[in-house]
Amino acid sequence: MSRDTRAGFALPMALFVLLVTTGAVLTSLNQSSTERRVIDDVAAGERALHLAESALAQLDDLGFDFSGSMQDSARVTFAEGYADVMMRRVRAPVGNERPLFVLRSRGVHTQAGTAGAPDGTRMVTRLAEWVEGTMEVHAGWTSLTGLRKNGNSGSLSGVDNCGEAPPVAGVAVPSSPGYSGHTGPVSGSPPIKTMGSTPADAAAEVHIDWLGIVSGTALEPDYTIPGDSWPSDFSSWPVIYVDNPGTNYSLPDTGRGTLIVRGNLTISGSRSWDGIVLVGGTLTSNGNNKVRGATITGLNVKIGETPPENDVGNGNKAFVYDSCNVRDAMQGQASLRILENTWFDNWAQY
Length: 350
Description:
The chain has four helices and 22 strands. The chain has helices at about 5-55, 200-205, 210-215, 325-330, and strands spanning about 70-80, 80-90, 100-110, 120-130, 140-145, 145-150, 155, 170-175, 180, 185, 190-195, 225, 240, 250, 255-260, 265, 270-280, 285, 290-295, 310-315, 320, 335-340. Strands 5, 7, 8, 10, 11, 12, 13, 15, 17, 19 and 21 form an eleven-stranded parallel beta sheet that branches.
């Protein structure tokens, strides 16, 4: 074989090997790019899922009216994208059935790692019920540590002041120390209700999570004193928590809503309160003041303390049951309850 023949054979072989090698490299690069794209798509989807769930966790800040609205929507913006939250009522309140809502959150992750890759999206759906705030009222004034009334003037009444609910007791106390003083101001069904023999017995009948309230886990007050100033606007029936263990707090002005006092409370002069009054220690009433709603005192018994007997004091005062004021005060305690085992990521989209 001549040299020219051998040279002509080597060149095509070199070109063939080069072509095969280039193809293999291109195939490998393409496969690597595809795998990277798949990984980025999966990661973007997981981040979108996180955004969708994070938005649902912020329902209280979205301004949805679960008490009456049929549907609403809002967008929550994050550094990595956003989530559109949609609320729709699928069952109206009927009898004892609470309103049922479908909550859908569509998370969009807008920072995929590969250029040209689509945004990651995931949809999360939950079912929830709107639970109105309620309160069991035993009497116009319920005292876990007994009650003493000085003078025969005023009113301790369990007859509904707004005329919408059946009467309750005027006063509810344990038999020891019980109720002492004039009974003329007391009215209701019955006028005086006995709740067991001891303060501990009475505490067991009052279904209020007092430990959760004073520890800050049961509700979130609108105002906490000390720290916040006494509110000037009571249009929304606020929840006010006075953190004064072992000391006395004097009601500074007339107001309405839910007043929670960790220690003792004094109401003087002609000040009044519409709504709910919860006191851990004693309540001393001086003057011609009024509470229209429901009053419960001595609640520190529920956390192992022994507050002394409550003293109504002197004056033409009124502690009367008012179901309308209790209902309005409990508006702030209403909440959306997510139903267990109702997490969906395959809910049909329309």
